[in-house]
Amino acid sequence: MARTIERLAIVGLGLIGSSIARAVKAKLPGVAVTGHDVSAAVRGEAQALGLCDRIAADPAEAVAGADLVIFAVPVGGMADAARAVAPGLRADAIISDVGSSKAGVGAALREALPGHLVIPAHPVAGTENSGPAAGFASLFDGRWCIVTPPADAPAGAVAALEAFWSALGARVETMDAAHHDMVLAVTSHLPHLIAYTIVGTASELEEVTESEVIKYSAGGFRDFTRIAASDPVMWRDVFLANRDAVLATLQRFNEDLTVLQQAIRRGDGDKLEDWFTRTRAIRRSIIEQGQDDAAPDFGRKH
Amino acid sequence: MARTIERLAIVGLGLIGSSIARAVKAKLPGVAVTGHDVSAAVRGEAQALGLCDRIAADPAEAVAGADLVIFAVPVGGMADAARAVAPGLRADAIISDVGSSKAGVGAALREALPGHLVIPAHPVAGTENSGPAAGFASLFDGRWCIVTPPADAPAGAVAALEAFWSALGARVETMDAAHHDMVLAVTSHLPHLIAYTIVGTASELEEVTESEVIKYSAGGFRDFTRIAASDPVMWRDVFLANRDAVLATLQRFNEDLTVLQQAIRRGDGDKLEDWFTRTRAIRRSIIEQGQDDAAPDFGRKH
What we know:
Two copies of one chain form a homodimer. The first copy, chain A, has helices at 15-27, 40-49, 59-63, 78-85, 103-112, 155-167, 177-202, 210-215, 221-227, 232-241, 243-266, 269-288, and strands at residues 7-11, 32-36, 54-55, 68-71, 94-97, 117-118, 121-123, 144-147, 171-174. Chain A is α/β, with parallel strands linked by helices and 302 residues long. The interface between A and B is large, with 108 and 109 residues.
């Protein structure tokens, strides 16, 4: 039988943690939410924003009595955050998280909390902004949340976590943690790495000034700057945690880039046109499946 | 003394050409506009949309009497389009274009139209859509238009072209054609190449299906699909025309990507965090200078 979540603890009140708090308040008003953040400044901000029913300065106190504890901290900080709350955990609490890599995070949480039930999850949603003020209740609407339960997880607990994310507006999918990490390496980590790279490259050329790059960014460059403005610590941790899958997809990207580079050098217009024609179809599918706006230019105001 | 534009001919009625027609109708109602497109289907669509005062099937007839002729065709098609209109050109007409590479296009237009005054220009604006229905009058508002006059261009003609683009809402800058091509290689061509590459890579992996890539694209990938949905022929021509600058900036990008790849492999978190922190500032500047929306996630609806 599916358990019901009545008391939620959120550890980490940045963009995602604060969005969960807001979404619970809006869509699951019966659930009591306690929030904690390691930073006193963030706790103060969360308090002022009225994000949670209660903000606890002490991590163990924050999770006391909670039947669901969600860690919403950079993936490299999961183990420390888990050890800090351990003394306060209910024995039967569901332990989950929102990290962008799953195999490593699951292992870290299980090691930090032996005997506890860990069911990692990842809402594939976000913006380039950070901190408790950046969150909003509709962040998860229509986005996918990937749950990666271990093989021996009790079905009732998995169902409760899935129902929780569905209630927040997400569509839920389950998969193996290793497969999640490969999928996200392609759909999220590699794009961030490429965006960070090109924005860095453009800002350090001798021939073109940074001020020119900014001025003429509407030619395409500005699209990359959005995700290259994402939280540096969060992304540092993602690349370290999902290293193997990221390096594997990066190798494939490099091969393809070399092929196109050679086509440009040789003046092989047919190869370029053929490639560019195929990529058009992907965007059409993304829009059809509701994963992006159909409006031109992302719906930017003109 | 600056000349005044009274009769405009637009050759090529796609996204940019049709946006010029619309912007002139909205902001320079005194200017008579004749449009031409090599495609009968596009001419019919332009006629139905009422884009121009007159649509001419014959290219030479389209430019007859025009004091400004703007070629808005893929850069590889400029020379043919110019030869086609040549018999109808006024001797003192200003010949311009909107192509994304300038040194090659300027040379091609001058060679095709000996004795005529050619002043290339490039409005740094667009969307991922194509065709006459995709244009809109406000496309150039607040965007930069780069004019690359040859050293011997009469000041009055240059001023007239600049005034024309200002009147359409653009901010105007002049620079040397070779420098333009280097600037745009960084701010537009390399980003398109990278986006085309990664979208192709993601759609052909064995480990992750195309349907998974589409489903979980909100993690960052979808940002790249917008410009990778741009017109394939236009972009084929841009890479062939601006080959040297594109390959030079691509080499710099590859160096930087290798550095970050090595940092990931070695687990050098400090290097990653330092890099990711620097790139944040660039986006802030782009927003401050009005070249992108401040709204999170490009202002996408949530």
